[in-house]
Amino acid sequence: MNNRTVRLQKYLAACGIASRRKAEEIITQGRVTVDGQVVTAMGVQVDPSHQEIRLDGTLVLPQEGFLYVLLNKPAGYVTTMSDPQGRPIVTSLLHGITTRLFPVGRLDFDTEGALLLTNDGELAQKIQHPSYEVTKTYEAQVYGRPSAAKILQLEQGIILEGKKTAPAQLHILARKGSTTSIRITIHEGRKRQVKKMFQAIGHPLFHLQRTAYGNLFLGGLLPGKFQFLTGDDLKKIFLKKIPLQKNK
Ligand code: URA
User: Fold this and answer.
1) Which ligand 1 atom is nearest residue 136's CA?
2) What CA–CA distance (Å, rounded) separates 217 from 229?
3) What is the pTM of this model?
4) What is the C-alpha to C-alpha distance for residues 79 and 210, in angstroms, rounded to an integer?
5) Is 246 helix (H, G, I), strand (E, B) or coil?
6) Which of 65, 147, 162, 226 makes an SS bond possible with 71, Cβ 3.0 to 4.6 Å?
7) Which residues lie closer than 8 Å to 202 by C-beta, 6 or more apart?
8) Active-site residue 108, yes or no?
9) Which of 189, 184, 183, 241 is nearest to 214 (CA)?
10) CA-to-CA distance for 11 and 21, rounded, in angstroms?
11) Which residue, by CA, sits nearest to atom 3 of ligand 1?
12) CB atoms closer than 10 angstroms to residue 96
């Protein structure tokens, strides 16, 4: 090892291929070659200035610059980079952006709202790493009128698939007929977590929108539209205190 070498997954992330975790998956899938040899082992050191690294046969080159985008994802789009069922993918909404960006985390097919996309694998990793406890805020429309006791249960944590959820913040926004609109802020990112949480207290949701990452809010961004983010915007993602105003 010399000071020009770097772990293969770190190099792929730095080149904007995917977050480091995702880059590891890509390596395991046998899609990466170093000097023509498929590498599936983790932690292999490479020297990108002397070795040829390819993903699916295409040369992987260092990034020229990082891009950060906030998209208001409409329902009916998947947040994966391709879909075996041929459903629309979110990156098809990034009109005019030729750089390959990938979503930071996921939103379900039927979930709307704030979705960050970037080619900065390190930042994507940081946002998703549990130690940074980046909060995500959602507005959920649920069936029925959850009692104060049930709301408190969700706030304090409930057992989902054998593991207690971390403390959450909930706030009732409106009660309308036999449905309730609730704002919920969590910092975990388990698959379908918000849906499972409301299901667990007997109030399944029928509409879900993510309104913020940390203090970075969707604001008035229209569904299907995106905006470029500045350094100051990115800092807001890591702010932990969530103001009570709606969608500001
Ligand atoms: N929780 C869910 O249940 N679905 C999402 O899309 C995001 C969070």
Assistant:
1) 8
2) 11
3) 0.77
4) 14
5) coil
6) 226
7) 144, 150
8) yes
9) 241
10) 12
11) 192
12) 5
* Arithmetic mean of pLDDT, 227-232: 89
Model confidence band, residue 3 (pLDDT cutoffs 50, 70, 90): low
* Segment 206-215, tens digit of pLDDT: 999 999 999 9
Residues 6+ apart with CB under 8 A from 175: 145, 181
Rounded distance between C-alpha atoms, residue 5 and residue 24, angstroms: 17
Q: How confident is the model at residue 247 (pLDDT cuts 50, 70, 90)?
A: very low
Of 47, 56, 83, 108, which is the active-site residue? Answer: 108
Give the 3-state secondary structure of residue 168. coil
Q: Look at residue 187 and give its three-state secondary structure.
A: coil
Q: Which domains does the chain have, with CATH numbers?
A: 6-59 (3.10.290.10), 68-129+223-233 (3.30.70.580), 133-213 (3.30.70.1560)
Write down the residue that tokens 């980079």 correspond to: 81
Backbone angles phi, psi at 199, to 5 degrees: -60, -40
pLDDT tens readout for residues 40-49: 999 899 987 7
Band (pLDDT 50/70/90 cuts) for residue 235 is very high
DSSP 44: -
Token pair listed for 5: 């070498």
Please choose, from the candidates 225, 233, 234, the residue with its C-alpha nearest in 3D space to the C-alpha of residue 96: 225
Confidence of residue 14 (pLDDT cuts 50, 70, 90): confident
Cβ neighbour number for residue 14 with a 10 Å cutoff = 20
Two structure tokens written together for 29: 């899938």
Q: Which residues line ligand 1 (CB under 6 A)?
A: 107-108, 111, 192-195, 208
Residue 163 has pLDDT above 50, yes or no: yes
3-state secondary structure of 65: coil
